[in-house]
Each structure stands twice: as C-alpha cells, then as structure tokens.
Automatic annotation (TrEMBL):
Protein's UniProt keywords contain Cell wall biogenesis/degradation: no
Family: Belongs to the DNA mismatch repair MutS family.
Pfam families: MutS_III, MutS_V
Lineage top rank: taxon: Eukaryota
Keyword DNA-binding: yes
InterPro entries: DNA_mismatch_repair_Msh2 (IPR011184), DNA_mismatch_repair_MutS_C (IPR000432), DNA_mismatch_repair_MutS_core (IPR007696), DNA_mismatch_repair_MutS_sf (IPR036187), MutS (IPR045076), MutS_con_dom_sf (IPR036678), P-loop_NTPase (IPR027417)
Listed SMART domains: MUTSac, MUTSd
Location of the DNA mismatch repair proteins mutS family domain: 462-478
Keywords: ATP-binding, DNA-binding, Nucleotide-binding
GO MF terms held by the record: ATP binding; ATP-dependent DNA damage sensor activity; mismatched DNA binding
GO cellular component, one term: MutSalpha complex
Protein name according to UniProt: DNA mismatch repair proteins mutS family domain-containing protein
GO biological process per UniProt: mismatch repair
Length: 588
C-alpha cells in the first residue's frame, strides 16, 4: 500500500454496515457526535496479545518510559489494555503506522496538580458561557481574555479549566504577572511582538504531519496547489519563529527586570553555535533563496524534494521549537492577566496563598482551609451598575460566596478586592439548579445524583456550593434532604461550603451551632414617594452582607412582592477550620 493510499483512508466512516441501530445523540450545548462503528469484536483482543503485538511491532517508541508504566495506576488494567488494542487495530487499518511507532502513552494525572471542576460546575458558575443566551458576555473567560494570539486563547481556556493548586507554582506565576504589571514599557514591546505572531502551534503541527504522512511524495501525486500550501505554511512558521526568537532575546537582555519571567519559562539555548537562532537563520536563507514569491513561482519536482528535505531537517528539532512556542504562548496569557488587573476599575490585590494542612485545626499555627477577602467586588459590577458598587468582606475559614475570586487566585490572577488570603482548593462542587430541564420530570433525580457526587467526593479542601437543596420536593418531605446534607458537610467533611436554602427552620436548627454563622443581605425601608396604592414604604437594598438570619416581618403597607424581595438571607457555617456561607434565604 502506497503512502498516497494512506491519505485517502482517513475518510468519513460508512455507516451502512453498522452492527447496531444508530440514533441521533442530542445534548444541548455540545457538538454533534460522530460515531465510528467497529467492524467486529476481534479488535478487542486479550491484554496479553496486545502486549505482544505492541512489543513485536515496536509501537509507542515516543514514550520516555515503558508504555505499560503509564497504566500502572489503572484499576481495571487488562480491560484498559484491551481497549488500547482496539485503538491500535483501528489506526492500523488506516495505515497510520508512523503515528503508532512515534506515539507515546502518558498517565492521565491532570488533577493531581490542579483544581478540579466538572462540566456542570463550569456551566453553573458561567465560566465560559452565560445562562442568558449562551454567549460569553459576563463570563470569567471574557473578563480574562486579553490574549492577542489564537494559541494564547486556547491556553487560557485550558488554564481556566485547570487552575493550579500547588502554592509554589501559583506564586511563581504571580511573580511573573506582578513583574509584567510593574514594567509597562516592556509589556508594551511584548504586546507588539506577540501580536505579529501567526498560530505557531498549529503551523508546527501541520509541518510535523507532513513528515509523518507524505513529505517524500513527488509533485505528480501531491499536485501544485498542495505543494504551494505546504511552502506557505512552512514559510509562515519560519517567519513567525523569527519574531518569537527576537522577542525572547529582547527579554533575555532585560534579565534584571524580567528575572521572574525568564526563570519561569523553559527556553532552549538561543544564541551561540548550537543555538536555535543560527539554525533558524539557515532555514530563513533557504526559504528566501529556494521559494521567492512562491505564489507566482512555477513549482517543479525539485521544489517538492527541497521542501521535503527542509521540513525533515526542521522537524528534527521539533522538541526545541515546541519549547519556544510554549514559552511565547505562556507570555501571551500571563501578559493578559496583567492587562486585566491594570485595566480594572476597582481595587485589585495579589492573593496570599497559605499551605494546605489536612485535617482539623490542632493549634493556631496549624491552619485549616481558609478563604478571607476584604473589600470584595464583582468584576462586572462597574460595567452593569449605575449606582455605587458596594464591596463586601468574606471570611470562610478559621478566622471567620464567591467562587470567582478563588478561581482567579489559583489561576494566578489578581483578585478584585483589598486583600485576599486563601488556602488552595482541590475541587469545586456546585448544585444550583439553574440549568435543570424541569419539563423532563427529572429534576429531583438530577438533584439527588449531583448531591450524591458531592457527598462521595468532597474533601476538607473542597469548595461546595449548594443552592436551595430540596426545592423539587414538598415542604416537609424535602426538609430532611438539606438538613442531612448540611449537617454531614459541616460535621463530617469540614469543607468550605456555600449553602442557600428556603427552609427557615434550617436557620433556627443551626442558629446555636458552634460552627455555623448566619448572614443575610441587609435591606431597609424608606417612605414611598411614588404614591403607590398598595404600600407606603419603599424597599431599599443595601447590598451589604450582615451577620444574623433575616427577620421576616410584614409591615402595614407591604405586599407579597415586597416580602419576596426582602427574603434574601445567608447562612455561613464553618466546621472547625472553615466557614460555610448560605445566601439568598427565600420566603416560600
């Protein structure tokens, strides 16, 4: 089978021979799924035969260690290896032997070093899409996105999904952001250079795929148009790498001012006889001499051969080029964090990260999970509020929600507030109910499943947000659910918890609990100047978090609408070493 046939094999699969009835999968907000049926069960062979096949054919030589070591932590190891065998057989049918030979298998250890948020949490907290129209307006991603490159925007999304939880790594990034904020002149130069960069990450991937697929094919098989496209891609990559190397060398000359950035980045040697600068100069000369004005240039077999040789030589140092590209993308994202902090209308502070000590507090020196913010304000408050923005103080922890400041801090961003002290969170759990599909009749089931996940997986370093748990049930039957969940999280799990409820008796039940504090959003009444027929007093929201449960009262001129508007209360509880805040106590 020639390499030309390989290019035609990865086509859309034929679904006429499916062994099962294919049904349309509908998932709101998700991309359409493409089902690729397996031709037979023979692909999923025994685990021992998979090991023999991989060893005999020399697959996964790109792995630094033995490919099997990546599966050491897998519980059902033999089943996993059998599934790997199915993947190997599928790629073999597509004639992608180069992918199998040069591929690598790595252990999936993402959440060992980062904060964990599941898909429902990302939706509930409006991280990427809002709950109004599904757009990005008002989201955390929109607030932080000041990146000027496509690859930087992709890395920003990845960082938001996986905030750090190692204190040392967080502080290293914060040092870089603070350094970029302090030296605005250097940041301006960085912005001007980064703005000129093409999508180097994808260009390098495209060039590497040329080597793996059909770089050695001659013009009759490739065609003039395809060769010109490859020349253009390679030329853009070389020119973009020149801009990137020049920027990195400028930063190295500013070592005294950019020491934190240079220490954080992993950059290969740029200057000297073995530096990348000299190698890149040779490729620039080759591209300029062999492919001048390639759009109007007649492409020959010789040009295709020269291009194949140049690309093969360039890809030999693909690891070093990737390190340079990763450094440039990192600079774009960290610069974006600095721009966000400098352009904010309110006060911004650098968060202080405390080391995590598991278990209950033994002494004052051994602190438990903490989140303490003074003068906290919402990032979008100035853009959407006509009046004065009122900041609030939050204390979740030993000394004493909002999940947004916590995510910002572990994203190594500055936090909107005067001071911020916290210990890293390992997981954020949410149960808000705003996205429940009520008409399906599965609201209670979804609520129980999400709550069960919290009870099974939450730790003392987690942040749990529960809003009006049990509202899908009757008044008295549903009271047992929030009571049991709240008590378990307070007295057993010891996590930082934001718990909102419409059960007034729950506030009375825990009013004297040593680890529970009640809070509500303050409000007051003033004489009604609109001369309403129904009430002579006007409700005024003070937007100030106040200690104590909200006392519900009915004035002579109040009506049900005003009573509902005043019913915003907050329970804040902490279990030995942290607080649990419960807001919006709504009158039923």
């Amino acid at each position: 089978m020639t390499k030309a046939a390989t290019n035609f094999l990865p086509a859309q699969p034929n679904n006429n021979h499916c062994r099962f009835n294919r049904s349309t999968l509908l998932d709101p907000g998700s991309a359409k799924l493409q089902l690729t049926p397996s031709p037979s069960d023979s692909d999923f062979i025994d685990a021992s035969k998979v090991r023999q096949m991989i060893h005999f054919k020399g697959y996964f030589r790109g792995s630094l260690n033995s490919w099997g070591s990546a599966l050491d932590g897998v519980i059902h190891r033999d089943i996993t290896i059998s599934a790997l065998g199915g993947l190997v057989c599928h790629l073999s049918r597509l004639m992608l032997h180069d992918v199998l030979s040069n591929g690598e298998i790595l252990p999936y250890q993402v959440y060992k070093v980062c904060l964990r948020m599941d898909g429902q949490t990302l939706v509930n907290l409006e991280i990427f899409t809002n709950n109004v129209d599904g757009g990005s307006t008002g989201t955390l991603y929109k607030y932080l996105d000041n990146c000027v490159t496509s690859s930087g925007k992709r890395l920003l999304r990845s960082w938001i999904c996986h905030p750090l939880k190692e204190v040392g790594e967080i502080n290293n990034r914060l040092n870089v952001v603070e350094e970029l904020m302090k030296h605005s002149d250097i940041t301006l130069v960085v912005t001007q250079c980064v703005r000129k960069l093409p999508d180097l990450e994808r260009l390098l991937g495209r060039v590497k795929s040329i080597v793996r697929s059909s770089a050695s094919l001659l013009l009759p098989l490739l065609g003039t148009k395809l060769v010109k496209q490859r020349i253009k891609a390679f030329g853009s990559l070389v020119k973009g790498m020149r801009i990137g190397l020049d920027l990195l060398m400028i930063l190295q000359q500013k070592e005294r001012d950019m020491s934190a950035l240079l220490n954080y980045l992993v950059v290969p040697p740029l200057c000297g006889s073995n530096g990348l600068d000299e190698h890149l100069t040779q490729f620039e000369a080759a591209v300029d001499s062999d492919f001048p004005k390639f759009q109007d240039h007649h492409v020959s077999d010789c040009d295709a051969e020269i291009l194949a040789v140049l690309i093969e030589l360039f890809v030999e140092k693909a690891i070093l080029w990737s390190q340079v590209i990763d450094a440039l993308i990192c600079i774009d994202v960290l610069r974006s964090f600095g721009v966000t902090a400098n352009s904010s209308c309110g006060s911004m502070c650098r968060p202080v990260l405390l080391p995590v000590n598991s278990g209950p507090i033994v002494s004052c020196q051994e602190r438990g999970p903490t989140l303490s913010i003074k003068g906290l304000w919402h990032p979008y408050a100035f853009g959407e509020t006509v009046g004065e923005v009122i900041p609030n103080d939050l204390h979740l922890g030993e000394d004493a929600d909002r999940s947004c400041p916590l995510i910002l801090a572990q994203l190594v961003c500055f936090v909107p507030g005067e001071t911020c002290i916290l210990s890293p969170v390992d997981t954020i759990f949410t149960r808000l109910g705003a996205t429940d599909r009520i008409m399906t009749g599965e609201r209670y089931l979804i609520e129980c499943m999400e709550t069960a996940s919290v009870l099974r997986n939450a730790t003392d370093d987690s942040l749990v947000i529960l809003d009006e748990l049990g509202r899908g049930t009757s008044t008295f039957d549903g009271y047992a659910i929030p009571y049991a969940v709240f008590r378990h999280l307070v007295e057993k799990v010891h996590c930082r918890l934001l718990f909102a409820t419409h059960y007034h008796s729950l506030t009375k039940e825990f009013s004297s609990h040593p680890h529970v504090s009640l809070q509500h959003t303050a409000c007051s009444f003033k004489p009604n100047t609109s001369k309403s027929l129904f009430n002579d007093q006007e409700l005024v929201f003070l937007y100030r978090l106040t200690f104590g449960a909200l006392k519900i009262w009915i004035t002579s001129g109040s009506n049900g609408r005003d009573t509902r508007k005043t019913s915003q209360s907050c329970i804040k509880s902490w279990s030995s070493d942290e607080s649990i805040c419960c807001r919006k106590l709504q009158v039923e």
